[in-house]
Specification:
Length: 416
């Protein structure tokens, strides 16, 4: 028995991989190579093949780490495109070991910086050529310090990004960032900056919004409330959409799968349902970039009687721990982001990487959105002294203006 909290998030990952493209970019324009990508290294769309492959591999790796953290009884939904795009944009401001680790984590160490940025730009521009539906990516950089002109040029040229001032008021800055993200995601991601640290000196943002109508929509009159069996064995009554149509289909010992096309034939929605003697964890364990490519070559047109749950949910993740595990350690510690700010002596490190997502699928199609924020703070200098209050002490509560002692006491044994 499968769970909506489970296999639905798996098909959504596939949607992100297939429909949301792949991102990347690195280091400032000042240090970018002028080499050109050879024709043999390019995909049919003119995008570097290594770049496309890196996004898939990186996205699947992040996905597996989230599955390990949350299990398969909860929804998991990410946008590999958004996560990598935000980090790639940030890497343009990094140098030294920080940059090297970021490129390694993003699986882009073999590509030159200019190749990466140009590939990201080509991919983003390809989104604008859809004849039906919407697939919109946006970028912005919010800083409290003067931005490096070369970094600013890179963001504007390759990411069509906008540079904005954070301002001195944290709450106002949060509101402005949230308003920008909400606007770019059609109101679905409204709180990406809610947990912004007061010490933040820069926020780098990527958003992506997708809306696509199915080429063969479901008939709403055929949607019925039926049982959906959760992974723990319980039964839930839920609206199930139904259609019988000629669809790409495949089956093996692990799963049954069907692919739905959107009106824009370049985008698809693939559903992988574990066989009855398997569970979701065995299916997700088999999810690799190699297997996805293998499965992609095995679709056959079949007449399929399909029942699919209607669903909508949103998820929020802090990716700091996962990115550290994947090898991006220095960026969160003794980092070098000297190419991000005009003042190269500024000590800065990544504080958090937050990722928010939204998905809704009904009889007509799919609407999805994601936002990823990379929050950078100024590295604090070490303390001059240390004070550990771990033995009896005296305390005074006073009025500083009148010097009146309001309370006076000692603590010999702390109690709650």
């Amino acid at each position: 028995m499968q769970t909506k909290n489970g296999w639905m998030m798996f098909l959504l990952l596939l949607l992100a991989l297939a429909g949301c493209g792949q991102p990347s970019a690195e280091h400032p324009a000042s240090q970018m190579s002028s080499s050109k990508t050879s024709p043999s290294a390019q995909s049919a769309d003119g995008i570097h093949k290594e770049f496309i492959e890196a996004e898939g591999l990186f996205g699947i790796s992040v996905f597996h780490h989230l599955i390990e953290q949350q299990g398969t009884e909860k929804n998991v939904f990410i946008s590999p495109y958004s996560i990598q795009q935000a980090l790639v944009m940030t890497a343009n401001g990094a140098d030294g070991k920080t940059k090297e680790e970021m490129k390694n984590t993003l699986l882009l160490s073999e590509m030159k910086d200019r190749e990466i940025n140009e590939a990201a730009n080509t991919l983003m521009n390809s989104f604008r050529t859809l004849f039906d539906g919407e697939l919109l990516a946006a970028h912005s950089v919010w800083t409290g310090l003067d931005i490096n002109p070369q970094f600013k040029q890179t963001i504007e040229q390759h990411f069509d990004g906008k540079a904005c001032k954070l301002g001195p008021h944290p709450e106002k800055a949060k509101r402005k960032i949230n308003e920008w993200a909400a606007k770019k995601t059609k109101g679905h991601i409204e709180d990406i900056a809610d947990n912004l640290s007061p010490n933040t000196i820069a926020v780098l943002l990527n958003t992506i919004y997708f809306q696509g109508d199915l080429a063969q929509p479901f008939d709403k009159a055929m949607t019925y409330v039926e049982p959906f069996y959760l992974q723990n064995g319980t039964e839930k009554k839920h609206p199930m959409m139904k259609q019988t149509a000629l669809l790409p289909y495949q089956e093996n010992e692990l799963f049954q799968a069907v692919k739905l096309s959107y009106k824009n034939k370049d985008l698809s929605f693939a559903v992988f349902l574990p066989q009855k003697d398997k569970d979701l964890s065995s299916l997700t364990a088999s999810l690799t970039h190699e297997n996805l490519e293998k499965w992609e070559n095995r679709w056959e047109e079949k007449t399929v009687k399909l029942s699919l749950p209607r669903f909508s949910f949103e998820e929020k993740y802090n990716l700091r721990g996962i990115l550290t595990q994947l090898g991006m350690k220095t960026a969160f510690g003794k980092a070098d982001f000297s190419n991000l700010f005009q003042d190269k002596s500024t000590g800065a490190k990544i504080d958090d990487v937050n990722h928010h997502t939204f998905i809704k699928t009904d009889e007509t199609g799919t609407e999805a959105a994601a936002a990823t924020s990379v929050e950078i703070i100024e590295s604090a200098s070490g303390p001059e002294l240390s004070l550990t209050v771990n033995r009896p002490f005296l305390f005074v509560i006073a009025d500083e203006k009148t010097k009146s002692i309001l309370f006076l006491g000692t603590v010999a044994e702390p109690a709650e």
